[in-house]
Amino acid sequence: MMTIELSTFKGIAILLGLVLMLPIVGCQQTKLVFTDTQTPVISQFVPLKNAPKLTSTAKLADKDESKPGNTQPKVTPLTPNFTLHQFPASHSGLHYISLVLINSQRPFKDIDVLNTALYHRANWLSAQKPLSCIESLKVRAGMHSIALQMACPTEEIGSALSILAASWQDNAFDEIDIDTVRRQLKLNKHISAFTGSEIEKVWAREILGERHPYNLALNNQELQQALTQVDLIDIQGAILPGSKWHLLISGDDTTKSASLDKLALGLAKQLPQLPSTDVAAIGSSREDSERIGAASKKQLFIIDVPGAVQTQVRVGYRLPITSLQSDTKGMSISSAPLSCHTLASWLGRSFSGRLYYDLREKRGLTYGIYGRCFDNPQARTLKFYGSTQLQHTGAFVSGILDHLKLAMSEPVQATELDAIKTFEKSKHLLANSSTVAIQASYIKRLTLAQNNEDVLRQREAIAALSALELQQMARAIFDSPPTILLRGDADLITEDLKSKLPDWQIKMITP
Fold it and tell me: Residue 293's pLDDT is what?
């Protein structure tokens, strides 16, 4: 009996000891083994053996690319501040309608608040109006434009235009729940922090400067917390001076141009009158203007997120702004929109861009790395962006910088240059693939004050681009240190960054 009790006691003691050891084992963490840097690798674009021969891209473009006359609208100024743009018929037979307010001279202040309110108004309308196309009502807002869009059959065009006009009246927000709008704005802030999209707000602050007009126009927390219907009407009224109305509408075989003119003129009379004189644009400080061009310091900014399992990475440049006519004129090459867009495609296009091929396909440092040119009336930026695991952070950032250097030092091969040109042609085809896409790119052109000749000139410049010219673009922009912003666990990644980027000063910043 005593033997059984002693055995039981020993068993309990051993079990208790194991239980007490569990917290110790659980607190142990696997030490991160950081990835080494490697020499950048680029694709050779070797043709596949026995692959069928295809028509050259030049001939294909001549046959299949949408000609300007096939997609461009008939433009009719109806009043000094209202222009009708009549597009060809859509494949669906519906009329795609966009009522757009544009001001290229200054950004729309508090457009983020107005966009949210109009979104809730659209939801309210979808439950109130018997119109069959009411659920197609969408809001598309940018820093210099805001569009209300619908897709309706011919018999509902008049009703649709009245709904769009009503969205700009003094009583437009009387029926929406303002508390819901406030909660949505507050929720958006929390969602941004949770998902990591807050990095874009910090990126805009660092790349443009805290006092840049775009940063001053957004994220007014005091307004958002105490928002009223009166505030919304004030916001609408404040963005009207200096702006212009544009009505984009696709026709069909049965709709006569004269009837559309009449409907559009009726809409123009319903809309608020636009003051003929603009208010002063929001200015930026001298410090912000000096950010344009070369950055003299190698600075890497980190948003510390303890416990983060990945590192978000942003690398890029703020470029000075010139028009399309300056694309290939000597010292202005760094400020040309062609340079910005082409370099983004060369290094940052998905699947076949240099960064994606090397850092994703060959080395497995990321699920995706992309490049994009953000071209706006008051700011042009080139950004490469992606995410990586903690242990890859230093190698990932170093890999991006190595590719910037490689683009400057070695000219591109002919096959790779052809791939870039094909990609740019494909973007043009996609921009003309549907009425929705055509109108979206057209609104962008209106915002940038571009015309058909500007677009054609840029396409011709891409088609004639040489390897030397592409290398000159890279040297003009990449010769200066980029702005680098990371969002991740600073305690875990800082030493790795210091070892792989010893020349860079690391700074901690808050969202």
Answer: 45
* Pair (219, 320) in one structural domain: no
Q: Please indicate, yes or no, if residue 45 is contained in any of the structural domains.
A: no
Domain harbouring 401, CATH code:
3.30.830.10
pLDDT in tens, 435-465: 999 999 999 999 999 998 998 999 999 999 9
* 219 and 346 co-located in one domain: no
369 within 8 A of 383, measured Cβ to Cβ: no
**355: containing domain:** 289-509
Q: Considering the domain boundaries, does residue 243 fall inside one?
A: yes
Burial level of 261, CB count in 10 A (0-12/13-18/19+)? middle
- Name the nearest CA neighbour of 96 among 120, 125, 71: 71
Residue 27 pLDDT class (50, 70, 90 cuts): very low
Query: CB neighbours (10 Å) of residue 272?
Result: 14
Q: Sorting pLDDT into bands at 50, 70 and 90, what band is 167? A: very high
Range with the lowest mean pLDDT among 266-280, 363-377, 417-431?
Answer: 266-280
**Closest to 396 measured CA to CA, from 340, 316, 479, 314:** 314
Query: Is the residue at 9 inside a domain?
Result: no
257, 315: one domain: no
Which among 222, 239, 270 is the end of a domain?
A: 270
In this structure, the answer to whether residues 324 and 370 fall within a common structural domain is: yes
DSSP 431-460: HTSSHHHHHHHHHHHHHTT--HHHHHHHHH
Within this chain, do residues 252 and 293 fall inside the same structural domain, yes or no? no
Share of the chain above pLDDT 90, in %: 71
Host H or E run for residue 140? strand 138-141
Alpha carbon distance 299, 268 (integer Å): 51
Same domain? 358 vs 493: yes
Report the number of distinct structural domains present in the chain: 2
Q: Which residues contact 22 (CB under 8 A, 6 or more apart)?
A: none
Q: pTM above 0.90?
A: no
301 inside domain: yes
Q: Which of 371, 353, 362, 373 is nearest to 313 (CA)?
A: 371
Boundary-marking domain end, from 270, 300, 322: 270
Same domain, 93 and 226: yes
pLDDT of residue 259: 84
Mean pLDDT of 325-332: 45
- The one-letter amino acid code at 458 reads Q
Alpha-helical regions (H) of 292-391:
337-348, 354-355
Q: Are strands 483-488 and 299-304 parallel, antiparallel or unpaired?
A: parallel
Percent of the chain with pLDDT over 70: 83
Enter the DSSP assignment of 505.
Answer: E
- By the 10 Å C-beta count (0-12 exposed, 13-18 middle, 19+ buried), 26 is classed as exposed
Measured between alpha carbons, how far apart are the two ends of the chain, in Å?
69
Share the mean pLDDT of the chain: 87
Lowest model confidence (mean pLDDT) among 145-149, 185-189, 477-481: 185-189
